[in-house]
Amino acid sequence: MSPFKGQTGLKRILNASGYSLDGLRAAFTGEAAFRQLVLLNVILIPLSFFLNVSRVEQALLIAVCMLALIVELLNSAVEAAIDRISLERHPLSKNAKDMGSAAQFVALSMIALVWAVILL
């Protein structure tokens, strides 16, 4: 049993929030792809407020942008875990990293597709 699992209530929420902020900070400082996605979100999300679309369409435009950030965080976490295990090249490590990259490719494709369908 993990010693970190014993927290409950407000203390658990505060600890979890701190860990989340640490993760966002690590991703932003250590991952160029995450910074690029943040920049894309800084452009696209405000842009969605100026488009003549319904609230549901606007929510979809924003959601797919945020989803790409989530996927990049998970992809970076997988890469970090694989690198922590070993920096040695291994087919399973390559598969794990490639699948994380593929997930991000799908997320970015979804941004392009959803924005195109709604705007065109």
UniProtKB/TrEMBL annotation:
Keyword Protease: no
Topology within the bilayer: Multi-pass membrane protein
Any GO MF annotation of the entry: metal ion binding
Cofactor(s) for this UniProt protein: Mg(2+)
One Pfam short name: DAGK_prokar
Chain residues that bind a divalent metal cation: 31, 79
GO cellular component terms listed in the entry, alphabetical order: plasma membrane
Annotated positions binding ATP: 12, 19, 31, 79, 88-90, 97-98
Tree of life domain: Bacteria
CDD domains (alphabetical): DAGK_IM
Binding locations of substrate: 12, 72, 101
Main localisation: membrane
Function: Catalyzes the ATP-dependent phosphorylation of sn-l,2-diacylglycerol (DAG) to phosphatidic acid. Involved in the recycling of diacylglycerol produced as a by-product during membrane-derived oligosaccharide (MDO) biosynthesis.
Family: Belongs to the bacterial diacylglycerol kinase family.
Protein name, entry field: Diacylglycerol kinase
Species per Swiss-Prot/TrEMBL record: Pseudomonas laurylsulfativorans
